[in-house]
Amino acid sequence: MVGTELKSLVIKPDYQQIFMYSAITWNRHVIHYNRQKARDEGLPDVVVQRGLIGNYFAQLLENGMHHCADILRLEWRVLQSAVPGDTLTCSGVVKQIHEQVADTQIEFDLLMLNQNRELVAKGTGTVQLAD
């Protein structure tokens, strides 16, 4: 039903998770693993990667659909940096449902807020219900 909310996903990224994500994605940008270099670039600390934020949104959709749907599309925009120790809350709400004879697709609006209720990222995701 349009307006239905997914169960929120709360994540507290830490230095190790951010470093390991850089390693597995071959992301060598030092702002993701070197505090001093991040500060030299005007950041408060190392920052959570855009891709990792997208993975959090994907996890929200997977959990919310109880692993009974395929993610067809996921788009997001990071509006503010997130750093280790932040508490990030991902939420999603059903925006549209497209029912066809062979399949059903559900479109979600996605938000990520930090512990201060500031908007970190927003996006949309579309899933297709599994047969």
TrEMBL record:
Gene3D superfamilies referenced in this protein's UniProt entry, alphabetically: Hotdog Thioesterase
InterPro entries: HotDog_dom_sf (IPR029069)
Protein name as it appears in the record: MaoC-like domain-containing protein
Lineage: Bacteria, Pseudomonadati, Thermodesulfobacteriota, Desulfobacteria, Desulfobacterales
